[in-house]
Design a protein that fits this description.
Layout: H1 3-23, E1 26-31, H2 33-37, H3 39-50, E2 54-59, H4 67-73, E3 79-80, H5 87-102, E4 124-125, E5 132-133, H6 135-149, H7 153-163, H8 167-175, H9 181-194
Parallel strand pairs: 1-2, 2-3
Antiparallel strand pairs: 4-5
Helix pairs in contact: 6-7, 6-9, 8-9
Length: 196
C-alpha cells in the first residue's frame, strides 16, 4: 500500500472513531494495564469527555488509571471483571448497559451488585493501636468511598488507615477526598452509622 493510500486510510479510521464517539450515548472503556498506557485510549476518552459522552470503565485487570486517565475517570463508577471467570461479569455489564440505555439507572449511581473495589486480606492498623480494622470494615470503607471517587478508593483507604489515629480521624481523612460539602457530609454520616 502506498503512503498516500495509507494516510487516506488512517484519516478515514480517525474520522470513523470520532464519528462513533460523537454519536454514542455511552462509551464502554475496557480498562487494563495496556489501555492505561495507550495514547490512543487517552485521546478517545478525552474526545468522549469533550463530547459529553458518558464513560463506563470496565476493568479487566486490577489497575488504577494514571496520568490524564486518572483525571478523566477518577469520579466514574466502575464495573470490575475480575476475578475470573469473566462470563458473569460480561452478563452484569450487558444488563447494566441495557438499563443505562433504557434510562432506568444512571452512571451517577454505582451498578447493582458491584463487587468492592479491591480488598484486603489482613487488618490495617494506624499509628495508634486503637485503630484496628478487620477486612469487612476495610471493604465497607472502600465501597463507600468508591461511590464518590472511583477505584482509587482502595489506595486512599490504605493510605489514610496508615496515618489515622482513630476511626473518626480515618473517616475525616477519607471524607476530605469527597468532592462537595453535601457529599462529604453524606459520606461521614454513612460511615458513622456503620459503627452503630
Amino acid at each position: 500500500m502506498s503512503n498516500n493510500k495509507m494516510d487516506a486510510r488512517i484519516k478515514q479510521v480517525v474520522a470513523e472513531i470520532i464519528d462513533a464517539i460523537s454519536n454514542a450515548r455511552v462509551m464502554i472503556l475496557v480498562f487494563s494495564a495496556s489501555s492505561n498506557d495507550s495514547p490512543q485510549v487517552r485521546r478517545e476518552v478525552e474526545r468522549a469527555v469533550h463530547k459529553q459522552v458518558s464513560i463506563l470503565p470496565f476493568r479487566i485487570e486490577d489497575v488504577l488509571p494514571a496520568g490524564s486517565l486518572e483525571y478523566f475517570l477518577s469520579t466514574q463508577h466502575w464495573l470490575d471483571a475480575f476475578p475470573p471467570p469473566r462470563e458473569p461479569h460480561y452478563a452484569r455489564l450487558t444488563a447494566h448497559i441495557a438499563a443505562l440505555l433504557k434510562g432506568t439507572v444512571s452512571l451517577n449511581a454505582p451498578p447493582p451488585d458491584q463487587p468492592m473495589v479491591g480488598s484486603s486480606s489482613v487488618p490495617v492498623s494506624g499509628r495508634n493501636s486503637l485503630l484496628s480494622l478487620n477486612v469487612t470494615e476495610i471493604e465497607s470503607l472502600q465501597r463507600r468511598l468508591a461511590y464518590y471517587v472511583g477505584p482509587v478508593a482502595k489506595f486512599l483507604v490504605k493510605r489514610a488507615a496508615a496515618k489515622a489515629v482513630d476511626r473518626e480521624d480515618l473517616n475525616k481523612m477519607l471524607a476530605a477526598e469527597v468532592e462537595g460539602a453535601p457529599a462529604r457530609k453524606q459520606f461521614l454520616e454513612a460511615c458513622r452509622s456503620d459503627r452503630k
